[in-house]
């Protein structure tokens, strides 16, 4: 009887402790609309689950909310954006026919400069230095800067990484070994597995080259930032921080904003989870009346065109804008174009929107397809709503995303070019005449939604799980704890070569002895 009571008590305690509200630090500092959508989505799911959140963001909410504190980095973002906008190389018209800037040294420098300034922001430093601030876990958006890992040990709590893109070796390296480049591509690659001979060599070369650059240049630079920033803050909090390596490779979990229905089915370690789609509200917001009317009244359906929030259609060349408008004017369909400014001579079937409520547009039954730059959020939302796409990848992960889309058969790729209106028209015709893309998009959407848990619930579950299991050390990949040379058995190779050498040596000695003896006996015979 007593033991039964005890068991009941234990169960009760477990239930209470697992439903206890947590205090979480959510770090999504980038001044980029799409990244902020992912941060705000995470905050919403955590607040809905009853947790308390401190959100480091460049896009604060319009209204204050219960249990939410925001550290506003907007002015820093605006300042950095103004500097970036002076750089003509980031404008759409200057990206035509260019290599992927994600591969450039400049991009690597740029991401670190951003993070350095973020970690220097007075409001953030104040929060991190305050010994009264306590968190149950910190969730950090990883964007090519490992040094931010130092935030977690300040609070002596588990670190959860968040990867905003498809999985790739650079983010997986934080929680596991580097995946084999013969069947997994770099995030900025133009190739899609299965890879040809040359593609495999190129992917291997990319990993080797980047690893060398990271090891020789980037990591020392990151260590300097890490030590400069976190030693000072740790002293104010009265804690000591671990070494850079201990902090960076101590993530308890990696949440990935991707899903095999959209991208490559990576082989993940036990503590990496696919949660793409969590940012999309389960109940789609109604469209503004004006857009709703346009979409309802389009007799031949609607085509939605948006190059995302970072690449602006307004930065296209005049010729590109005009030729697209002329081409759109020949269509029977209504075109909704997310365009950040005004244009002259807009045809009657084209509607320009400075801001587009994308999920609500994608959810409308009268939508035919989506012309996109192929950003991760856009392809995810397209699959969520079962909408086929025409993709015009420009830079970053967009080429890899569109490679996956065309391979899976729910979209068509059009190359970015001054006169792309011609090829876009051909793709539009194909999309309208051939139903296979829509069929495929619906099929993949079904796969995307067929999960044990909704992605938003899954996100909350794993964050709570990490806290309740004190950092989930049992899920940690054993690959992290052995050095590279052991993983590829270099020690065995050395030992084998040594044995082989000794064997050769012994054989030679033996053979020589015998031949010496033989020649000796020959000589003796002669004599
Ligand atoms: C805020 O959190 C507390 C628990 O910490 C919870 O009881 C309350 O319902 C939350 N408020 C809202 C609006 O979610
Ligand atoms: C690594 O993470 C675990 C779980 O959060 C924590 O207990 C441990 O102190 C961390 N180690 C270091 C070196 O920060
Ligand atoms: C439709 O497109 C698919 C995928 O590109 C292709 O395999 C199929 O042959 C096309 N069907 C027609 C009727 O053109």
UniProtKB/TrEMBL annotation:
Residues 1-21 form the signal peptide. It comes from the Eukaryota. The keyword ATP-binding does not apply. The chain crosses the membrane at residues 488-507. One of its GO terms (molecular function) is UDP-glycosyltransferase activity. The keyword NAD does not apply. Keywords: Glycosyltransferase, Membrane, Signal, Transferase, Transmembrane, Transmembrane helix. Coiled coil: none annotated. Pfam families: UDPGT (PF00201). Belongs to the UDP-glycosyltransferase family. This is UDP-glucosyltransferase 2-like. It comes from Vanessa tameamea.
């Amino acid at each position: 009887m007593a033991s039964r009571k005890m068991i009941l008590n234990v169960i009760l305690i477990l239930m209470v402790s697992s439903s206890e509200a947590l205090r979480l630090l959510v770090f999504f500092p980038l001044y980029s609309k799409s990244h902020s959508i992912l941060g705000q989505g995470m905050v919403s799911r955590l607040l809905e689950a009853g947790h308390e959140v401190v959100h480091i963001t460049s896009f604060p909410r319009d209204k204050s909310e219960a249990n939410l504190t925001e550290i506003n980095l907007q002015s820093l973002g605006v300042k950095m954006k103004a500097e970036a906008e002076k750089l003509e190389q980031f404008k759409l018209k200057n990206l035509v026919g260019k290599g992927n800037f994600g591969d450039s040294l400049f991009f690597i420098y740029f991401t670190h400069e951003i993070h350095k300034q973020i970690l220097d922001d007075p409001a953030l430093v104040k929060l991190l230095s305050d010994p009264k601030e306590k968190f149950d876990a910190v969730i950090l958006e990883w964007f090519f800067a490992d040094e931010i890992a130092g935030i977690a040990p300040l609070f002596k709590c588990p670190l959860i990484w968040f990867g905003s893109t498809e999985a790739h070796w650079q983010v997986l390296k934080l929680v596991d070994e580097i995946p084999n480049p013969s069947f997994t591509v770099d995030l900025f690659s133009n190739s899609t597995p299965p890879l040809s001979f040359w593609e495999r060599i190129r992917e291997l070369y990319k990993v080797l080259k980047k690893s060398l650059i990271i090891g020789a240049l980037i990591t020392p630079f990151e260590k300097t930032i890490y030590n400069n920033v976190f030693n000072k803050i740790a002293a104010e909090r009265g804690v000591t921080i671990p070494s850079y390596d201990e902090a960076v490779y101590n993530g308890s979990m990696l949440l990935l904003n991707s899903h095999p229905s959209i991208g490559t089915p990576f082989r993940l370690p036990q503590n990496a989870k696919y949660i793409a789609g969590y940012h999309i509200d389960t109940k789609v917001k109604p469209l503004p009346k004006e857009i709703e009317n346009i979409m309802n009244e389009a007799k031949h359906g609607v085509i939605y065109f948006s190059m995302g929030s970072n690449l602006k259609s307004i930065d296209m060349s005049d010729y590109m804008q005009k030729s697209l408008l002329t081409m759109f004017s020949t269509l029977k369909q209504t075109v909704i174009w997310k365009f950040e400014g005004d244009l002259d001579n807009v045809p009657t079937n084209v509607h320009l929107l400075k801001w587009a409520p994308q999920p609500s547009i994608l959810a409308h039954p009268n939508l035919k397809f989506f012309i996109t730059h192929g950003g991760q959020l856009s392809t995810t939302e397209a699959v969520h709503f079962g909408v086929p796409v025409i993709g015009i990848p420009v830079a970053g992960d967009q080429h890899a995303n569109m490679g996956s889309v065309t391979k899976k058969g729910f979209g068509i790729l059009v190359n970015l070019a001054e006169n792309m209106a011609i090829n876009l028209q051909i793709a539009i015709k194909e999309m309208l005449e051939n139903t296979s893309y829509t069929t495929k998009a619906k099929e993949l959407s079904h796969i995307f939604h067929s999960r044990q848990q909704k992605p938003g619930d899954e996100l909350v579950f794993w964050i709570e799980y990490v806290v309740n299991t004190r950092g989930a050390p049992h899920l940690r990949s054993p690959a992290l704890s052995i050095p590279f040379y052991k993983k590829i058995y270099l020690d065995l190779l050395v030992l084998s070569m040594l044995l082989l050498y000794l064997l050769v040596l012994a054989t030679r000695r033996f053979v020589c002895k015998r031949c010496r003896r033989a020649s000796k006996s020959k000589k003796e015979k002669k004599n």
